[in-house]
Amino acid sequence: MLRVHFTAKDFARTRFAPRPAPLQELHAALTTAVTQSGGPLFAPWRGRVLRSLPAGTGPLADLVPAGRPPSFLDVLGDTVADGFEQIRATSPGLVRSELERVYGAVPARGWIRGLHAGDETAWRTLHRAQRAAYETVLAPVWSVVQDLHRAEFTRYALAVAEHGVAATLTGLAPGSRLHEGVWEWPAAAPARDVCLDGRGLVVLPTFHHPAGPLLQDAPGHPVVLTYPAGPGIPPTAEGPVASTEALAAVLGRTRLAALRLLADPHTTTSLARALHVSNATASSHAAALRSAGLTTTTRAGRSVTHQRTALGTLVAGAWPP
């Protein structure tokens, strides 16, 4: 059982990662592929991944023997390059201690021994391997992962607004419970207690790892908890996503265009001009969006100004500042 211990400060510092983290998702995918998690449903995907991995990804298998990754691989960078920079910034002492934890002694393999010693060539080897794996495993489906993450973000934001943080957390993890400041995951193994101690929690969905949670607990940093989400099988390039076409089918093309334009404030006249419709039609679209909570309207004298709400921003497929 995993037990995550919250203080009042931790509840205030709990947040949902606003974007997926490429390297975190990549490492979750590779772990699933090599440990055969997910059973028969994941078998076709696993076979494709393992057959398609180029030789250049081999160093990653060396670095993660028996599915036990060193903790410094878990980062939340928005891009592969950003994630690698965060990994590279890991203190030499932590790199050495984590490699020794994984291998039990000074690593025998040459390039990992070089990593243990801080050799720059070894770091370049790791970077090339991560890049090759990302291009093979995630790049073809990354836009799908982004859409799935956006859907989870929206669901989380609305659940927090309606039910609060505690109920939302347990809703993300069926079978878990939050009692007297302790979030318990009964199915998690091995047994572990994690004390947030005011650092807060970052919640991150993964769409390539069916079992959870995965936990990153770096000293002095918020704890990152990765939980399984999505349709239950890894995404494909043809997978169901909340596309522009689907959203237009619900809202209508002109109304969707209005919602996207209203990322910036518009008067009814300027909105009508941008949409190439009459003022009356623009006003009708703005009223419909406002009634759904997607926009607001502010009146100043005889002039009215329309602008998108945070919910409208999520629906439109962009992120609020």
Automatic annotation (TrEMBL):
Highest rank taxon of the organism: Bacteria
InterPro entries listed in its UniProt record: ArsR-like_HTH, HTH_ArsR_DNA-bd_dom, Metal_resp_trans_reg, WH-like_DNA-bd_sf, WH_DNA-bd_sf
Every copy of the HTH arsR-type domain together lies at 245-320
**UniProt entry keywords in alphabetical sequence:** DNA-binding, Transcription, Transcription regulation
Q: Which spans are transmembrane here? A: none
Query: What PANTHER family does its record include?
Result: ARSENICAL RESISTANCE OPERON REPRESSOR ARSR-RELATED (PTHR43132), HTH-TYPE TRANSCRIPTIONAL REGULATOR KMTR (PTHR43132:SF8)
Instruction: Quote the protein name from its UniProt record.
Output: Winged helix-turn-helix domain-containing protein
